[in-house]
Records
---
Amino acid sequence: MPRYLVISTEIITMNAKIRALEKSDIGKVLSGWKAAFPFDDIPRERFENATLNDPNYVADGHLVAVHGKRVVGFVSAVARRGVLGQDGKGTPAEKEYGYIKGLFVLRNYSEPIILKQALLKHALTFIKSEGKSLVKVGHYTGSFLNPGIDVRYTNERQFYRRHGFDEVDYEEDVSINLTNFTPSSYHIAVQQRVAELRVQIQPYQDDFLAEMKRFVKRLQYISWFPSGWEKDFPYQGTHLVAIKDGEIIGWAMYNPVFYEGFFGPIAVLQEFRRNGIGTALLLESMIMMKMEGMSTITAGWADAPFYLKSGWATSRRYAIFKKRLSKN
Ligand SMILES: CC(C)(COP(=O)(O)OP(=O)(O)OC[C@H]1O[C@@H](n2cnc3c(N)ncnc32)[C@H](O)[C@@H]1OP(=O)(O)O)[C@@H](O)C(=O)NCCC(=O)NCCS
């Protein structure tokens, strides 16, 4: 008797059935995710944005394994069509890549490894069917769940290595506790340096839009500013800009959420970097978030050395995995 049967797009293991993710599954998927990944606490809205609401979402890449009424496993895989993809954020360097955003099977399920292998196989088949030759776990610049696999999940890392993936890179989240935060002597020196350059840090205003467009054109960061970015920009968070001689040369965004704030992205035009402008934007965001009652701030998938200089510390580390897909 075969271990599992393949019937069109459905794989049926001895106990569980694999089918497309439905909106009504999400509560159970999130509970399963939390049980499988104890360091993760993914809010429902973020999960929906990274799965069903991702413009690159395709049903064949988003599967749940169900056993009776239980959701016992889940996989999310995505592949941009063409270079840009539906989110307009793809670059030529990413053209050959598909991504696994998340994969779990409940440990207390009777056949976790077989089911996990089946879900992985399905994700890889989907990515290949979209014409991609490489797959990464992590580094997806669209709506992602995590930048990679938290390095503390040693079993997960082992699982991907056993299935032909190489651990190719690492990314970090950084955080700071604001409870006792006051600007350091480093910050005060930066503020003086930035003032001497006649650079001002200001909240973004609607009438800066034409200047913001010029900044975006010079910056060329398609993953943060895809075509049509202006539409959602005012609703995405609080924006600060660095202005010199009437021109925007730097920008940062932050989001206060209950007591924990989120910072980023941040960018300074290449020719103005290493002058303290990024730090001035970061500092102003920290001051504003502290005033708004935030006790901690996190920046995900961050350029850590820049933040460490301002008193932040690494809070999570992620491993990125890569695999070349076989041609046949
Ligand atoms: C990250 C970024 C915003 C920093 O802006 P900046 O104006 O150059 O930052 P600062 O001049 O305030 O740098 C402060 C310190 O951070 C560190 N730092 C800044 N950029 C760094 C980099 N790329 N690598 C290592 N350290 C860096 C340095 O120690 C620097 O101090 P120093 O110049 O005295 O050595 C800018 O490099 C940028 O726009 N990068 C591209 C977009 C990006 O990657 N954003 C970060 C996403 S989290």
---
Amino acid sequence: MKKILITGSSGFIGFHISKFLIKRKYIVIGIDSHNNYYSKNIKKKRLSILKKNRNFFFNKIDINNKQKLKKVFQKFLPNAVIHLAGQPGVLYSFKNPKSYYVNNTNATKTLCKISKDFKIKKFIFGSSSSVYGDQKNFPILENAKLNPKNVYAKTKLKSEGIVNKTFLRSRTNFIIFRFFTVFGPYGRPDMFIHKFLNHIKLNKLINIHNNGLNFRDFTFVDDVVKILEKSLKKEITNTIINLCRSKPILTKKLIRIILKHYPAKKNLLKKTMFVKGEMYKTHGSNTKLKKIFGKIKFTDLENGLKKTINNYIKNKI
Ligand SMILES: NC(=O)c1ccc[n+]([C@@H]2O[C@H](COP(=O)([O-])OP(=O)(O)OC[C@H]3O[C@@H](n4cnc5c(N)ncnc54)[C@H](O)[C@@H]3O)[C@@H](O)[C@H]2O)c1
């Protein structure tokens, strides 16, 4: 399985998996629309790093464009697809719900249809822990009752359904990974860690939702990428797997660790109430993940943060 098509290759996770696979001699076909949800410069910077490699082929297209997408499949005939393009972000989904229907639901439908037509062997989809919504029992198992609380979560769940329906009785095997708050170098500026780093740099106040009392199950991007690569090689048929460390941390505590390694000049924390649509706690079970992939050595949160901060200081992203 050598030719891998990656959607969202200039995005945070897409960039990391592309870089990882290129190094391991896969041929990587990247697709990204470079939309302006966040700074295009960050996407361009990630792309410029990938483009230094001869086994990386980039196509700047929107996956909603069936004709252009089909041409990419015809030209490269990929063996597997890793689908990471999409519209992320919980709060923005209240402002611009349409972009979620277009870039998550519709885009997934178009991509799945073409992948099926081209008899792709494996289809890997990056879904989200947000499909669980608020739960009572932790850690959350894959078969928990789903309770999506916002348009982002609803469109991710709908996309899972499309993947399932398209490939269930086809020659394509699918794996749906539910990612739990992925972080790392070149991270997304709309997510808490990079947002906070930017605010510290600019000495600007930052809103701390729910007084810093939310829990998040942070997962370091290098760990995610290693599992994605293993899943290309392993015989796994049509399943949904949580991808998480299963060690949630209070935002308050996370802030302390960040400040230890990247101190602020003054107190920048502006505590705010609970924000509608957000989950109070994410804490996934990774029992199924470990059962399938064996023992996994997850990166410790503080070490992951140090790597993220060092890269932020060095490369300004
Ligand atoms: N980062 C996380 O913590 C996290 C957690 C759960 C799920 N996810 C999911 O993982 C995937 C990747 O997340 P990320 O953090 O790398 O996000 P990202 O926003 O950095 O990357 C997504 C990329 O997709 C591109 N894109 C969007 N719509 C497109 C379209 N129609 N056609 C082509 N390209 C398009 C964007 O330009 C962007 O570069 C997303 O689907 C997201 O929902 C991420």
---
Amino acid sequence: MEKCAQNLIYCNTIADLHSHLPDNCKVITLIDPVVEDLYSQYLPHPRIIVDASEKNKSIARTEELALELLNMGADRETFLLGVGGGIITDLTGFLASVYMRGVRFGFIPTTLLSQVDASIGGKNGVNLKGYKNILGVFRKPEFVLICKDFLKSLPEKEFKNGLSELLKTFIICDRDSFFSVVDVVERYGYDTGMLSPLVDKAANIKFSITEKDPCDRGERELLNLGHTFGHALEKISGIPHGEAVSIGIVTALSFSEKLGLISDEDADIIRKGMEICHLSTVSPVPLSSLKEAVVHDKKKSGSTIRLILPTGIGKAVVHPIEVEILEKYIYDLS
Ligand SMILES: NC(=O)c1ccc[n+]([C@@H]2O[C@H](COP(=O)([O-])OP(=O)(O)OC[C@H]3O[C@@H](n4cnc5c(N)ncnc54)[C@H](O)[C@@H]3O)[C@@H](O)[C@H]2O)c1
């Protein structure tokens, strides 16, 4: 077991999980049913099973869960443990932040996406009538316990979702790791063992960026690479988050090229790397159909949208752009 800074813990085997859990209070586990089915013997009781559906990331479900907690006798000393992918950790973090004005909580992320991204950084939230993550709080879990054993059972589709976020992290700030991921996938496919050190690296990067910028006011913005177009695509076409992000990264690359911020050669290397990793790079809908959703992105401030654009392999910038100009570029690139 290796402990990094305050609360990111890498646990080598699933059998070791219990040794990192709090033993001085009542722990209630909110768990994804698929994970409960596969790994029941390693995880603590009592449990509340919550399906990983975006519909469950809601105020209505939060209320139901709070009632369940009350019925189970949960008080201000209770510790909530979220075990599952990003849906379960987002919901657990939100519930723990509002139940009795806030109780202690921690996460065991079980998808690649949640291990390198969703569980780290203290953003907890629920959706509002189809608008994602509109209600939420910044509050850090006491720990994020990362165990790569969980990834062995992850369906390929879910693995790809996480791989988009993993590559995104390296595209913005770690050139060597970008090439390492592409090399591993090209030679060994989605081998969780071979990718393991790179998962740790991506989790560490997200952790240290969010430590420096806990409330998303500076460097953390770079982690939104691919998300302005990705969120719009997710909303319009209903494709999964990670797939939308990989297409969003490729769209951001096209903008970067158009603005002369990245060389065509670097942009091609990134695109090729994503293809080698079998990530989606082509939008199922025309770019022009995303215009409305993009200009209403929550990252908008006044008449400006802050696009995150790669400027090289391992480098990116925040590029504020007037909505009018963005609309024209969307039209040009469509
Ligand atoms: N808070 C943040 O900073 C942040 C960042 C990125 C994404 N998110 C949120 O994360 C959510 C997506 O998370 P996700 O991609 O982890 O998806 P998810 O929680 O929906 O899980 C995906 C699927 O994987 C299954 N699963 C989970 N662990 C498994 C395992 N070990 N083996 C087999 N199957 C397993 C689940 O049952 C589910 O069907 C979205 O709601 C998104 O908004 C939050």
---
Amino acid sequence: MDKIMHELEEILKEPIENTPPSFFMDSLCSLDRNILLKSVREFGTPQYILDREQLQQRALYFSRMMRQYIPNSDFFYAFKCNDLPYLIAGLKEVGFFADVAGIFELQLALELGFEKIVFSSPGKSISELKLAIKHKNRVVINVDNFDELIRIKEIAGTKKMKEKIPLGFRLNSEPFLKGEWSKFGFELEELAKAVKLVNNSPNLEWVGLHFHCSWNKTPWKYIENIKNIGTFLSRNFSAEALKKLRFFDIGGGYYPEKQAVINKIQDKGILLDTIGARRGNKNQPFEEIKFDPYGFSVTQVEPLENFAKGISEALKESIFSLNPEINIYFEPGRFIVSFATHILLEVIAVKKNCVIADGGIHMLGDYKFQEYSFAPIVNLSRFSTDFHRKIIYGPLCDPNDLWGHSYYGEEIRKGDILAVLFQGAYTYCTAWRFIKPIPPYIAFSGGKLILAKPEEDFSQRYPGLISIE
Ligand SMILES: Cc1ncc(COP(=O)(O)O)c(C=O)c1O
């Protein structure tokens, strides 16, 4: 550790080179600065802003790439990643189905008219299960555990229904998914017993299997899981039973390229900027960088095509050989929505060593910029290729209400508009109900700015007041 700290001190002494922000603005941030500033004039700050066309292009990029290698596949957007109805409707338009995890998401998917919905989560309530079963022609439940299966059996009853309730099983199949992920799904060894319970019920039908693994920068976890499950199935189930399966759901977890993540123990904003500058990496200053106890290491996210190829080969070897007709389900979230949303803030105070913006990390519901993440911040009002260090805080009564340690543009002044880029995933949906209202969500679509969701208001924050009167 001492050696690393020494190296770090040395790095910090070196001057930081400028990094042109045009890279983000031109190739990743598809919205131009003038549109972002126009949105601020029309709708104020803080705000989330979505580029709907970019979102749809990204979704099509994912589904076309996967279908090129795995033709019999369907795509289920994971609502939990960003549940803005306007965004979800945009994904439906480009052929995505729905992956839901709770009653509101399920209701939303039904309301938006999705024809195929997968419902996967580890603790479904009775009312959630009842609603899913009521819409069994559209919803398939990925069952997580025996107790849930027994509850479903009880709800289904013994009186024969016209159509059976379709069920998939979530599997927790691999050693690398144990530990903190061990709460999810059945163990492979439990599958035969679960299937038996289904077969003993007149109203239940086993139609699929599911696994999910998160934060994948390479396809290896998918490949290992597919092979492992395939081998297990071939040894433990008859060819006839396996031919009846309709889907194999391989979950989400596709990591977007060029996102910076750094270990919690360090002040990653400074580290990341410093390392990027030192490496002279002018074009991709915030590519994937990891800091580990052995020193700095760089982990690139593999291109999506490598995922498509690797997964397709594993499927051919281990799953299509058992059931050539089976439909492959994908449940991407983060990969699809990260880049198309930005957060816009106004600087309301400038102090000696820091500035305070009008929106805080309640917009994220996460201390991610304090703990493990980095996002480029651009001064839209004074746009230039200069790169500056400055701590950018939000307005919350929390010392960790921090957006970053640096920005691109000319020196920040009071009233300047800042853009925190690429904040579409696990931000709006996880926003905290803390001190400030949850800001509005604006969408840019067909050349127009639209208020996709208004700012949270007083009556939404304090509905209980009505009963006190
Ligand atoms: C079952 C399931 N599917 C899909 C996703 C979406 O994952 P990501 O946003 O990493 O693609 C998640 C996220 O936790 C999940 O639990």
